[in-house]
Amino acid sequence: MKKVAVVIYEGFCMFEFSIALEMLALQKVPTHFFGAEKKPYRSEEGLLSIPDYTLDELNVDEYDALVLTGAMDEEFPIIRNQRMMEIVRQFDEKKKIIAAISIAPIILIRAGIMQHRQYMAGINKLDLIEEGFTMDEMQGMIQWSDCVDKFDDMKFLKDDHILTSVAYGFREWAMELGIMLDIPIYPKTYGLD
């Protein structure tokens, strides 16, 4: 049976992974929620949620996929959490699915796993340079403005076992996650053909 780890943090975005979570629930895929601490985190929509476990309790070998949602706040303190970076690197080393949407791919950049990959991110490179990221770290990134202006029909980007998207591709991103997990998906349920 497939098993999925979802990480939540202050300001996490519910709508971006709502369909993915519903799809996993419909197929009874065990889905566990993790946070840096076992404390309440408020989503950007205002929902207060408490993770089941802390990041220190996440054993990568027990999971098939890691799901990371975006957040409204560009501050995004989770990118300074060393345990989060270790988890991302372990998922990558073991070629397990990593699904990141909106600005969550910056977690993957910070973990140092995106240098030679193509990916989408819901933020612009100049904003990340101000946060201390380098152009070398972001060379394969399709930034927010390009996603909207040049690639508006692209809803997600898959590079091997890493799946990325921006906010408006949340339905297609969720469906691709289901395909990667090899579980039945129902696109028409979510308004897709």
Automatic annotation (TrEMBL):
One Gene Ontology term from the biological process aspect of the record: proteolysis
Signal sequence region: none
Domain DJ-1/PfpI: from-to ranges: 2-167
Domain of life of the native organism: Bacteria
UniProt GO molecular function: peptidase activity
Short name of any one Pfam family annotated for the protein: DJ-1_PfpI
Keywords: Hydrolase, Protease
SUPFAM superfamilies (alphabetical): Class I glutamine amidotransferase-like (SSF52317)
Protein name: Intracellular protease/amidase
Organism from which the protein derives: Breznakia pachnodae
Organism taxonomic ancestry: Bacteria, Bacillati, Bacillota, Erysipelotrichia, Erysipelotrichales
